[in-house]
Amino acid sequence: MNVEFINPFLTSLLNVTSTMAMMELTPGKPQLKGHDIAKGDISGLIGMVGQQTKGSMSITFEEGLILEVMNKMLGEKPSNINEEVSDLVGEITNMVTGGAKNLLGEKGYNFDMATPVVVAGKNHTIAHKSKGKKLLVPFTHESGNAYIEICFEDT
Q1: Which of 88, 94, 98, 81 is nearest to 41 (CA)?
Q2: How far apart are CA 54 and CA 93, in angstroms?
Q3: Per-residue model confidence as pLDDT tens digits over 102-145
Q4: pTM strictly above 0.85
Q5: Number of folded domains in the chain?
């Protein structure tokens, strides 16, 4: 998997959380993931297709972290994951993918983005549609963890 293609997504997530929620996440060690079960409680999944590649990216949040992000971004802190939290995860997924798309465009990678799908619940699954390997990158914060999964194949 091409690091040049992965890093813009990681950079974009850090940018979105630091500028929009005033929260600093700490990236962990990337690892390959061999199953579809999400590590957190709510995920945004978005597909991307371009001439050079196709694939998908997901961002999964543990409940404590996404509730704190919502509090910092919108001044609201629901007691659990609800429809507004789901909407926020969809928006964050869009913002991260859009930021990565801009960074990748500068390197000659262009792709179209689908509408994000948000899935919530303990042990929910994330079904990437491409045949590539799934790379998982954890991010830590005192309120909980987030995880980016990236799965791309060359076309």
Answers
A1: 81
A2: 17
A3: 999 998 888 898 999 999 999 999 998 788 889 999 999 999 99
A4: yes
A5: 1
Q: Write out the two tokens for 76.
A: 């609201």
Strand partners of residue 119 = 43
Q: How far apart are the C-alpha atoms of 54 and 66, rounded to whole Å?
A: 28
Domain holding 62: CATH number?
3.40.1550.10
Give the closest residue to 123 by CA, choosing from 35, 33, 40. 40
| Amino acid at the residue 142 | E
- For residue 152, what pLDDT is reported? 85
How far from each other are the two terminal CA atoms of the chain, in whole angstroms?
A: 13
pLDDT in tens, 71-83: 999 999 899 999 9
